[in-house]
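Retry 2 of 3 after timeout on previous attempt. Resubmitting structure tokens to design endpoint.
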């Protein structure tokens, strides 16, 4: 059985936390477990509403799903939630233009199913750290096209411009990844409040060097991001697949 720890922190510069996190090591609908991280965008109320709405409604959709394929369950849920959030953003003036990143994960045996929209990420940390998701952002498109160096992307002035978000359009394109997990590996899900402050190798070092529980490791990651400036909300979910 999986074991997880989630934490979200407002950071050092923001007045509101627009991140939202959900984790369940127990079954949710026909899924054996469920982990979701979201980072809202828009005005103060809009971003907060978007991330909370998207996560809570995704959970409800999954609870009610009669499908059995992990991918199908998550895919249908995210498309339904996107349509609902987009409608709400058009109906309520204070939510106009809202949207949210989202990364969703589920573990069955030694297989990990991941879905993402936006630039919140999922990593697998073992002897090395590997980013599984691909950012839907302007700078990532430039890196993939070969017009921008990956190191320069971290400090590019447009690094926070995302190209996909739940609720931003009437239709959403969701990326899916299926990965085989191995003994000793830990899953990390996070918002860019962590990855904008810490390099991947720093993240891996903290996970490996921090003795104790997943809680200890998660709190150490939050503390390190805040020590580097904490310019954004920071959310971390760590999952031990229990292999």
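Retry 2 succeeded. Sequence:
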């Amino acid at each position: 059985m999986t074991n997880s720890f989630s934490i979200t922190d407002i950071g050092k510069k923001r007045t509101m936390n627009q991140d939202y996190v959900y984790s369940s090591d127990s079954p949710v609908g026909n899924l054996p477990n469920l982990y979701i991280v979201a980072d809202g965008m828009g005005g103060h109320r809009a971003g907060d509403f978007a991330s909370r709405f998207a996560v809570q409604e995704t959970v409800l959709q999954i609870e009610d799903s009669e499908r059995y394929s992990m991918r199908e369950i998550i895919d249908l849920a995210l498309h339904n939630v996107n349509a609902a959030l987009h409608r709400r953003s058009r109906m309520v003036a204070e939510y106009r233009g809202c949207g949210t990143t989202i990364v969703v994960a589920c573990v069955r045996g030694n297989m990990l199913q991941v879905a993402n929209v936006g630039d919140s990420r999922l990593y697998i940390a073992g002897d090395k750290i590997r980013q599984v998701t691909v950012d839907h952002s302007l700078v990532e498109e430039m890196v993939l096209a070969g017009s921008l160096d990956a190191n320069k992307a971290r400090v590019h002035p447009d690094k926070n411009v995302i190209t996909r978000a739940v609720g931003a359009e009437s239709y959403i394109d969701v990326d899916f990844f299926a990965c085989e997990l191995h003994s000793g590996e830990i899953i990390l899900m996070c918002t860019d409040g962590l990855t904008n402050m810490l390099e991947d190798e720093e993240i891996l070092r903290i996970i490996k060097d921090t003795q104790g529980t997943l809680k200890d490791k998660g709190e150490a990651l939050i503390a390190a991001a805040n020590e580097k400036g904490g310019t954004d909300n920071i959310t971390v979910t760590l999952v031990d697949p229990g292999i």
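Attempt log closed. The domain at 3-240 is CATH 3.60.40.10 (Phosphatase 2c; domain 1).
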